[in-house]
Design a protein that fits this description.
15 helices, two-stranded antiparallel ribbon, seven-stranded parallel sheet
Amino acid sequence: MSANGSPTGKQPTATYESAFLKACRREPVPHTPVWFMRQAGRSLPEYRKVREGIPMLESCMRPELVTEITLQPVRRHNVDAAIFFSDIVVPLKAIGIDLDIKPGVGPVVERPIRTRADLDRLRDLTPEDVSYVTEAIGMLTRELGGTPLIGFAGAPFTLASYLVEGGPSRTYENAKGMMYGDPELWADLLDRLADITAAFLKVQIEAGASAVQLFDSWVGALAPADYRRSVMPASAKVFRAVEGYGVPRIHFGVGTGELLDLMGGAGADVVGVDWRVPLDEAARRVGPGKALQGNLDPTLLFSTTEAVQARTREILDAAAGLEGHVFNLGHGVLPSTDPDALTRLVDYVHTRTER
């Protein structure tokens, strides 16, 4: 049975009736559910304390530490869902890609993927490669009880961008150069990454994750025609691979206002919206049959409580007619955010939307 209680002849799990999963399924909710991308992280002093002296990738491979970090924002903020503490490059590291997450820089790949021969370095991911993920999720689901756990992975385009560029990029000249100049190699690269990503999501779902989110952080760099031709098939393959589990599938990218309909069409049940597009307009672009997630600008949390609440009211009003809405930021929590601002925001959304 899936973690969210999909029909397999067994009783639904404790998370099935949660506000978060109800909203993802576009069912009536007791209040608008809230969680934050990067809610487990550098904005929390307790996170900085337990991570002190431990490199990021090592942190992701210690089940007890992963469990503690994932639980911290649930305890502090009373959010409606936990998101598994990991990183999008973890499955790449697990299959032997020589990479590291450098502080202040991000993921850096020692030998970028640039040729067809390089594809041989991208072997299949097995559950044994990420046994620490299975162990951590088992520990988490016991602790979380009725609070859903969101698993996640990086989407093929974003992973390919890191692999081809060798690290973060603002222009993606090498990745786009391959996409335009050698479309067959590009398609094969994304197809292989789709298999790795799907395998990583399956591990998380089978261990107990109640929903999954596919982060295509950098796909907003593409025009719709390029997305449809060169990226959408791989993302759709990932969503198809986990469809049978019955867990909600969330799709999120940054700067993707022109891609929202295509991202929904790739197979997501919930489409994440950044702060650049109002939710009612996003709903028009995505079309019926999808829930939406979003979309407060993360920088608003550096202003006054009154300003945060005023903009939150606008978002909730824009979401009033939606089939399903999960409140979130339009991107991740910024490291210097005051944690108390997040706690107040959760309470405000819960109180204002109580049915």
